[in-house]
Amino acid sequence: MNTSKQRPVRVAIIGLGWWGQKMVSILKSCGTELEIVCAVEPNPAAGDFCANNGLTLAASYDAALARADVDAVILATPHSLHPEQIDRGAAARKHIFCEKPLALTKADAERAVRLCREAGLVLGMGHERRFEPPIVDILQKASGGHLGRILQIEANFSHDKFMTLNKSNWRLDPQEAPVAGMTATGIHLTDLSVKLLGAAYDVRVSCETLASDFRQGDTFSAHVRFKGGGTAYVSATLVTPFVSRFAVFGTKGWIDVRDKAHVEAPAGWIITRASVGSLIEISEVGPAEPVRENLVAFARAVRDGRPYEISGEDLVNNIALLEAIIRSAASGEVVAVG
Ligand SMILES: NC(=O)c1ccc[n+]([C@@H]2O[C@H](COP(=O)([O-])OP(=O)(O)OC[C@H]3O[C@@H](n4cnc5c(N)ncnc54)[C@H](O)[C@@H]3O)[C@@H](O)[C@H]2O)c1
Fold it and tell me: 249-284 burial, b if ≥16 CB within 10 A, otherwise e?
């Protein structure tokens, strides 16, 4: 669908749960870039939220897709719904911003990327970590060669926010959200890993249930080897207080980024770094709103034809790795990435 360069990209937000509501608050501050036309949410309890936020509730996803004044859909729905909702969104020629993970299988990720590419649609992805200022700095330094050859990544993104969820919540269903915190948080770390090191070669996973009755496990780590060399150690636990650390090590330098708080309420970052011959330096970066930056990047790709930061190749590489992680968690074996 063509959009005028003069006006904001008009979106329908699909799913008004935890993250959908967070995105509504962000979208309301995106002013000239994005405008919410309607929302879709089957839970009647969302009525109050819509009334309080001036949102029009569409009767169904199909009803939102049928609207000529909707340029794009933002999917903030349970994971298993994403592929089918992307199929239908692309068929209706709407640009798509999908919350992570894009899909649970490589085949579904490839299909989503292909459908959007063939229809000339932008496929945005809820990997806002790419837009955190210290991560932007890492990615720029890495692509500029300032870190030298990238050798290793060590990363952990964990929290205990799901401890209070009702046991029937989809987030605690191993079919919907397999492998402890992998689809909740670990998927952001594998996204950054494939961005820095390319397609993964194989993976070995440990997924244990140590401090909860979560059926998908609560404590996960993966050791990933990459086709071009290099490794990533990634962990995502559901039963420890918030931690988010991403560290990348190269021959010319290394950088370790720690978030002070979860991205739902950013509080800034602590950076530790060293380069060849230097002392170790510690610095801080003040709060920013990477979820907004990601949505604005999506809007500019839709409206102005600018390239969107997360490529289709990265999206597929990440979900291929996710699929292998799910298989390795089940078998305990090293699994080749498809
Ligand atoms: N980028 C991030 O940092 C981040 C953070 C949290 C969640 N998420 C992602 O956001 C998505 C939603 O997660 P959540 O934590 O908000 O879950 P949630 O359960 O709180 O919200 C999901 C909402 O989708 C609604 N829904 C279910 N079926 C629907 C349908 N067919 N059409 C429209 N709405 C439907 C549910 O009623 C619910 O309100 C997930 O993909 C999750 O991974 C991303």
Answer: bbeebbbbbbbbeebeebebbebebebeeeeeeeee
Q: Taking the CB of residue 31, how many other CB atoms lie within 10 A of it? A: 10
Ligand 1 pocket (Cβ < 6 Å) reads 14-20, 40-43, 61, 76-79, 81, 99-100, 126, 128, 263
CATH architecture for residues 129-293+319-336: 2-Layer Sandwich (3.30)
CATH architecture of 9-126: 3-Layer(aba) Sandwich (3.40)
Secondary structure of the chain: what % helix, strand, coil (to 5)?
35, 25, 40
User: Could you state, in order of their start, the residue ranges of all structural domains in the chain?
Assistant: 9-126, 129-293+319-336
Q: Which of 13, 14, 16, 18 to mutate to test the pocket of ligand 1 (most atoms within 8 A of CB)?
A: 18
Residue nearest ligand 1's atom 18 by CA: 17
Residue 23 · residue 291 · CB < 8 Å: yes
Sign of CA dihedral 211, 212, 217, 220: negative
For the stretch 252-305, pLDDT in tens is 999 999 999 999 999 999 999 999 999 999 999 999 999 999 999 999 999 999
pLDDT in tens, 174-192: 999 999 999 999 999 999 9
Distance 56 CA to ligand 1 centre (A): 18
